[in-house]
Amino acid sequence: MAANTVTISLHFKKSFTSVALLTGYHLCGVGVAGILIVPTARVWGKRHLFLLGNVLMVISCGWAGGSANNYTSLVWARIFQGVALAPFEALVNACVGDLYYVHERGKRMALSNVALFGAAFLTPVLAGKITHSLGWEWTFYLLAIFSAASLPLTIFLVPETAFRRPEYLNNDLKQIVNQRIENRMCLPQQSNVYQHEASHISGEKKHLSPLTNSESQAVSQERDTRLNTIVPTKTSYIQMLKPFNGRKTDENFLKLLLRPFPLFFHPAILWACLIQGVIIGWTVFIGVVLAAIFLGPPLWFNEVQTGYLYTGAFIGSILGLILSGLLSDSMNKIMVKLNKGRYEPEFRILLVIFQLVFSGAGLYGFGIVAQDVGEYGWLVVDVFFALVIIGMVMGAVASALYIVDAHRQIAIESFTCMLIFKNIFSFILTFFAYEWLLSNGIKPAFLAISSIQMGICVLSIPMYIFGKRNRSFFARYDLLKILHL
Questions:
Q1: What's the CA angle centered on 267, arms 398 and 84, to 5 degrees?
Q2: In this structure, what CATH number is given to the domain that contains residue 39?
Q3: So where does this one cross the membrane (predicted)?
Q4: CA distances from 144 to 66, 130, 140, 149 (A)
């Protein structure tokens, strides 16, 4: 809605901040709805949430388009648009972890993040032109039409990715490894394998003493039992079309509802929230700035010209996709070789180096040139905006990959924490952004923002160094188990 800010402000005779809050309320809807995503996705899977989100998006977009004479109605329509968006923001990255192996996730995670965040910068380019030609209501009507057109694709081409595995296979073999360690039920020739598995989960090696014949016999019986486990029959395509196909867990719904909140105290989850959420908040802030400085003096852009400014941001998202796809898996392979063939999830954090470079240059540069846009012109501003988006995409990919690789068993809860954080943070920014700019000026505000972002990126250094110890600690002292969640 950045390109439509002044148009809608004049239409409803509302302040600039009130119209900016239409984006803020939308983000708030995403964040609040995300809280309900965890238990429902855990218990019944993801497919029904994608279907519900798509249907609700069609309804809410039509509602928003029909709210031309009622600002309050438009606010509520925007909130429900956020609710409709929440399943996609919360679960798409988790689906990448469901569908692909570790070495296959880099490019797919980059693509999913660009689809989620990067494509959002293409819509203002179209929205400005649509508003100028047809009226702002048609930006919502057309979105409703395209959402309705995508509904059959969701119904027929998006199967359930959640699968209820045998309990002993969960948590990256942690339970079976710990059980065999406790019972000393590991064959001598197999000990190295399980030492490697245990060290990957807990971050430390456990050396086992040789076993007696009776213990070895018990291991053989256990192995035969699990190998003879009945393989489930293949699901037919018609069965795959069901919104639900059984419970995925027997855990209590209320406990699952509360699971994300303690994870904000988990260092890895908090780091991921900061790396992904804060930079996304700054892009929302930049959207407010663009509307403020280009729709007024000295350039007096109209909706179409302001919308075209987001072309740079969209190009930046594509460049971020390409760089993330090329670097994530290739850097991983290089680090594995340097680490003598052992993979560590912390290798994913190295992508943040590029976030620091691109977002730092983009934010500092944007603040300097946007202060005097009459002298520097719109193109320089757009280039720095593109650099910010490149950094945003690379940071989002780095944090998502690290969570999926290092904490797969709590991936849904982790992505929900990230969703709640970034949307509530962005919502708060829309409240104060315009007043902050008026009271402090663009340059001082962005110098402060840039310095904060650099400090957040630097937090990746202790995360990289102590990440393995952090995994070891929380493998031994599971925060959710301690709280009986």
A1: 60
A2: 1.20.1250.20
A3: 16-37, 49-67, 79-102, 114-132, 138-158, 268-295, 307-328, 349-370, 376-403, 415-434, 446-466
A4: 11, 14, 6, 9
